[in-house]
Amino acid sequence: MESLILEIREAVKKLFEEDKVDLVIGFEEGSLPLKATPCFIRSAEDADRLTWNSMCENNLAVYVPGKKERVGVIAKGCDSRSLVGHIQEMQIKRENLVVIGVPCSGMVDRKKLKDHFGDKEILSVEEGPDEILFKGDGFEESLKRIDLLNDSCTACMHRNPVIHDILIGQEVQEQEGVDEFEVIKGFEAKSSDERWAYFSKQSEKCIR
Fold first, then answer.
1. What is the pLDDT of residues 31-48, one digit of tens each?
2. What per-residue string of b and e applies to 170-180 under the rule 16 or more CB within 10 Å gives b?
3. Residue 144 parent element (H or E)
4. Per-residue pLDDT at 83 exceeds 80
5. What confidence category does residue 179 fall into, taking pLDDT thresholds of 50, 70 and 90?
6. pLDDT value at 177 more than 70
């Protein structure tokens, strides 16, 4: 991950130095070890704020529509597909957009971490290619990355950006034989009562 972070920072610095962008939308470290937050970079000096890890779950394409300035966006495969939609819908001009593509092997689902660790406070995270090491007060545990991914990531068939002007790192192998409708089929197999129970549970979060 460190090499990817350095490559992202250098690419963004170069874009500003060559006067190719006015703004770059990326990620910076959040206030918690398990959170990366969107950030808006407007100078080469600020590029060192940028980071990249398996917690960069937000789709940064949502910040692009309506922008009149020249915008660089750090984009995963899913982000890049959203950017294509924005271009087709004329929400941004292609010539005003620089896509900094980053191949993605999936983002961690923090709900799965909560289910596993409960009330234990995670203080630091170290990522490996296949496992992630979590450290806290009085504990240290490695978990398999594949077991922690968002469900949407396990079914993703576009891990590499579909468009990019700059590619960070190496492309990853796309998943084959994935049934992207597996979750839908599972839902369709439920009874009417089970479906109602599901939607009732989801609506409990609503505050209106």
1. 877 789 999 999 999 999
2. eeeeebeeeee
3. strand 139-144
4. yes
5. low
6. no
**Separation of alpha carbons 48 and 202, rounded Å:** 39
Give the Cα separation of 61 and 24 in Å (integer): 12
Q: Is 98 helix (H, G, I), strand (E, B) or coil?
A: strand
Confidence of residue 20 (pLDDT cuts 50, 70, 90): very high
Report the C-alpha gap between 32 and 139 in whole angstroms: 17
For residue 197, give the 3-state DSSP assignment.
helix
Q: Are 157 and 104 in contact (CB under 8 A)?
A: no
* Token reading at 32: 């918690």
The amino acid at residue 183 is: V
26: how many CB neighbours lie within 10 A of its CB?
Answer: 25
CA 8/CA 24 separation, integer angstroms = 11
Q: 99: burial class by Cβ within 10 Å (0-12, 13-18, 19+)?
A: buried
Nearest to 11 by CA among 86, 73, 95, 83: 73
Beta strands 36-41 and 97-101, pairing class: unpaired
Ordered DSSP codes for 11-67 = HHHHHHHTT--SEEEEEEE-SSTT-EEEEEE-SGGGGGGB--STT--S-GGGG-TT-
Query: What's the rounded Cα separation, in Å, for the pair 95 and 154?
Result: 33
